[in-house]
Amino acid sequence: MAFAEESSSQTADSERAMALTLGALYFAGAGIGALTLLLPHPPVAHHAGLWSNVALAAIGAMPLVAFAGRFRAWSLHVAIAIGTLVVTRAVYLSGDGGSFYSFWYVWVGLYAFFFFGRRWGAAHMVLIGVAYGWVLTQVAPTSPIARWVMTIGTIAIAGVLIDALARRVRQRAAEADSRARSLAAVSDTAHELARHTSSEGAGLVVCKAALGVADASAAALWEPVANGTGLKATAATDPALLGRAVPFVSSPVGVVRAFNSGEPGMAQGDDDSAPPPLSEFEAGSALFHPIVHDGVPIGVLAVYWTRFRERASEDLGQVIGLLAAEAAIAIERAAMLARLERVARTDDLTGLPNRRAWDEHLVRELARAERTGAPLALAVLDLDRFKAYNDEFGHQAGDRVLKEVAASWLGLLRETDILARYGGEEFTLAMPGADLEEASETIERLRAATPLGQRVSGGLVRWDGIEEAATLVARGDDALYAAKRGGRDCLVTR
């Protein structure tokens, strides 16, 4: 657009609205002009010419209203200039430089200042000044210079005021629009978070939303590391940020201060306490907002700008606060789902994986063994005459036995071994990388370490490289029953 350099001072209204407004001014001028001609009028006025002026104004208004959507800024400037000439003609035809028609110059100036800002308002005021100065020389009123100064001065002062008002209106409109967009982003984020069950996925959604509303360079979600020694970026829009850690015992960087205090804060790129990556920027700023659940900080939402920013606006701080609140809900929901998942996969009594978890583990171990060619041994273990023990000593005593057996056996196994409670007093054990001889030695150690005088029967098999998980377990179960039939308290290998 020819006037693109003035886009910052133009109104946020559409060009269609600008054309309609100018058309309304043309119609109003035509109507008022006609009314003045019907009222008593100075005898020196050229009535026929003024009526033609009324017609020109009315005709000029019609295309502005009828084709408002097609007018562009440059054509509106032309229409404003034509309006100035029409007003000048009316003053000239009135035969009086002090004619009330000169007040229409104020309309033209106010319109130009309001819709196009000070620069173009001043340009149109110059055109008005030239036109009015010329007409004053033609009609020779008394005190022409004073009249010119009064008229043009009024337009200039009114223009500055209307421009200030317009700028204020635009600023308020921009702020309202920004708040609306920010709240919409928070709402969209809340809906998006409902689709994520992991804290990592939810954290990335929050970071992307913060990046957008803050017009920032990067955003990250910092959470405490497992050992509690610091904070780690568990989600980030910038891959360079992801996985970075900041210890609590180091200098009190902004993200640590926000976490410890529970209060939001800013940091600058030249601040010695600025954390990475802020300290790596040539100039930059960051906003840290704590993520709080039940009054306790559980993380920090950080927003980074590569440019210097002295402070964050109140609106931005509120929106980031809302996103931090959504992050708190998402983190807690993810943690709750993780706890439910652990409960669903863990035996309540012994803390071992249950049958569901065992089935999943075994399928993965079979796939790994097939991929690597390593051996895989499987054992099915059962406490001998455990039902009789329960009948004699009670179920509470039986539960204690199962707990102690599980704890004792776990202490003798490798980290890669998988021990599960398969059901009742029956346990399953997968030993990746172990052949039958190594696995047999492990089982014998377990049987010898079984507490409370319990005896154990077991069946041990090795995966043949092709059978499915259910078939492998069934072979182990058959070996166990063979041990039972053989007198119990023994291990049968097949």
- How many E-type strands? 11
Query: What is the averaged pLDDT score?
Result: 85
Topology as a string of helices (H) and strands (E): HHHHHHEEEHEEEHHEHHEEHEHE
Count of DSSP helices?
Answer: 13
Low-confidence stretches: 1-12
Radius of gyration: 42 Å
Instruction: Give the overall form.
Output: rod-shaped
> In percent, how much strand structure appears in the residues?
5-15%
Derived structural class = alpha+beta
Distance between the termini: 86 Å
Q: Describe the largest sheet.
A: 6 strands, antiparallel
Strand order in space, largest sheet? 3-2-1-6-5-4
Share of helix, binned: 55-70%
Structure, described:
- This protein has 494 residues and is an alpha+beta fold.
- The protein has helices at 15-38, 47-66, 73-94, 104-139, 144-193, 199-214, 254-261, 314-345, 355-372, 386-393, 395-410, 436-448, 469-485; strands spanning 218-224, 230-236, 245-247, 265-268, 285-293, 296-305, 376-383, 418-423, 426-432, 456-462, 491-493.
- The strands form two sheets. It has a six-stranded antiparallel β-sheet with strand order 3-2-1-6-5-4, with helices on both faces. A five-stranded mixed β-sheet has the order 8-9-7-10-11, with helices on both faces.
- Helix 5 packs antiparallel against helix 6 (199-214).
- It starts with 14 loop residues before the first helix and ends with a strand.
- The model is unreliable at 1-12 (pLDDT under 50).
